[in-house]
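Quick start: read one record
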Amino acid sequence: MGKLHYQNSPSEDEKKAFARFLAEDEELVLVTGLGKVYLRQIFILSLAMPGFIFIGGFLAAAYFLNFNLGYGLLLGLILASIVGVFKNIYAHHATRYLLTTRRVIIKKGLLTVKMTSALYDKITHIDVIQTFLEKLLMHHGKIVINTAGMNKDEIILSFVDYPIEFKNLLERLINREREQLGFRSGPVATVEGEIVEGH
C-alpha cells in the first residue's frame, strides 16, 4: 500500500484559526485546500500574465532611460515573482476544505468569507471527477458531494489533492457519524481503503 496523504491531524494553529467555524460538539479532523500542483500553476500563470507586462514595461523603461537592459529584465522578473507569490498565498488561504466529526465545510475568501457546509447525515453520495492527466501528473481532482434537504443538491470541492483518498476519509467519517446516531451505514462502505458499493 502506498503513502497515505491525509493522515496528519490539524495543527494547533489550524485548530485555533478555524475554531470559530465549529459548533461546541464537533472537532476538526482535517484541513486542506487547493492542490499543490494547481497552486504552482497559479504561480506560473502569474509570471506569464501580468509578468510579461512588468518585464516589457521595465525593459522599455531601461531602454528609454539608457539603463542596462539586464536590470530592466531583472526588475520585471522580481516584480512578476512577487505578484505570483502573493496570488499563490491568497489562493491557498482563501479556499479551505474542512472535515470535522460532523460535517464537511468549504470556506472561501479572506476578508469576505463565504462558508458552505453539509452534515454527514444529509450526504447521499459522493462523486470523484478526475481526468487521466489529473490522475497521472497532477494528482488532483474534483469531489462532488450530493446532499438531501438543501436548496443546492451538490457541493463541489475543486482541485483536491489525491481525491480518492479524500473521498475514503470522508466516507469513513460519514459511516462513523451514522453509526453513532444509530443509523445503518451509508450507501458506500469503506473496507481497508477500498471503496465498495453498498447494497
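Residues 188-199 have pLDDT under 50 and may be disordered.
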